[in-house]
Write a structure and sequence with these properties.
Distance between the termini: 16 Å
Number of helices: 7
Strand order of the largest sheet: 3-10-5-6
Number of strands: 12
Oligomer: single chain
Length: 360
């Protein structure tokens, strides 16, 4: 029987300290809901879950970006819908003005309404915006340039049109041509149609390039630089380069081919009918393109939702605690701690027995 060294108390104390530490950790896991609260809990798991958490948050933000882009497209498409309704009204007016039963005063009145409609189209084009960004004035279009901007400009081109430099010959509007920068004819051209001061180059894959030209001075050799830059870049992924470019061309009287429309004469009204038809076709094409963008973005949103769901599931498997399993461990450690405290108390009482020997 020893007084100075109580080995049983030391053993009980050490076991109690260990159980209290484990009990404290279990309490923390129960309180936080995580089984990894510090790097020492699971160093590798901590590193993996930190990367996963960053990616989950990034996917969530990319999802919101895509949703915002859908709102942008809906805003632009809504404005184009109004413009198309006005063009349809203009079509009715031009057909009315082309009728020979109208007097000069009648056509003046019709022209006055047409003029107001064109001004409203211009206003919508200039003022339609989202988050202070103009949508229909050409700021959100892919950029392209010519060496003769006074005579011919790049109105728009689709994203699939091959980027590069070209030479367009408009000397003969009945037989326009497009070559590469070295003068070699392109073999994948489907058609080139020049009408109402607009030339549309359509490739066999469906991509298009639209140029303007001067009816009275169309150049023989126009150098065209299709940069492939511009448009509204939508970040739809967690990594660099995971983006979708939404290109919205300029909506103007010239781009629609209805500039300088005059229905005050019968001949002018007849010509205006074809001009309005071109404008309606142009707006319809742009609305179709925007619809395709929206469908693509909505598919992207669905894919992001699935990716985020699967990644969160993997993150939860590593990071989150199983409450039922942890409750069993917590209860066990609670009992062991209480038992250890009792045993330490009893071990500390053993030296008191030495007093009984002295008293006897």
């Amino acid at each position: 029987m020893k007084v100075n060294s109580n080995i049983q108390a030391m053993i009980a104390s050490n076991v109690l300290k260990s159980n209290e530490s484990r009990f404290s950790a279990s309490s923390e896991r129960m309180s936080s809901g995580y089984k990894i609260n510090r790097a020492k809990d699971n160093p590798a798991g901590m590193a993996i879950t930190n990367r996963m958490h960053s990616q989950i948050e990034s996917l969530n933000r990319a999802n919101q970006n895509s949703s915002n882009a859908v709102n942008v497209i809906q805003t632009a498409e809504g404005a184009l819908s109004e413009i198309q309704d006005m063009l349809q009204r203009m079509k009715e007016l031009t057909i009315q003005a082309a009728n020979g039963t109208n007097t000069t005063a009648d056509r003046e009145a019709i022209h006055s309404e047409v003029d107001q409609l064109t001004k409203e189209i211009q206003r919508i084009s200039k003022q339609t915006e989202y988050n202070s960004q103009k949508l229909l004035n050409g700021d959100q279009d892919l950029k392209g340039y010519t060496n003769l901007p006074a005579l011919s400009k790049v109105i728009s081109y689709t994203e699939g049109f091959t980027k590069g430099k070209y030479i367009v010959d408009l000397a003969s509007l009945e037989n326009p041509t497009i070559n590469d920068i070295n003068g070699h004819p392109l073999t994948n051209v489907d058609s080139i149609v020049c009408k109402d001061e607009r030339c549309t180059v359509t490739m066999k894959d469906g991509s298009e390039l639209i140029l303007s030209y001067d009816e009275n001075d169309h150049a023989a050799a126009i150098k065209v630089d299709v940069r492939g830059i511009g448009g509204m870049k939508i970040q739809v992924g967690a990594m660099e380069g995971q983006s979708i470019t939404v290109a919205i061309p300029e909506i103007s009287l010239k781009s629609m081919g209805i500039e300088d429309m005059d229905v005050r004469t019968e001949d002018g009204a007849k010509k205006a009918i074809d001009m309005v038809d071109e404008g309606i076709a142009f707006i319809s094409k742009i609305r179709s393109r925007l619809g395709a963008y929206q469908n693509r973005l909505e598919a992207t949103i669905s894919n992001l939702d699935i990716s985020e769901e699967n990644l969160t599931s993997s993150y939860s498997t590593i990071k989150d605690v199983d409450m039922a399993e942890e409750m069993v461990e917590y209860t066990k450690l609670q009992i062991l701690t209480q038992a250890g405290t009792t045993m330490l108390t009893q071990a500390n009482e053993q030296p008191q027995q030495a007093l009984q020997l002295l008293q006897s």
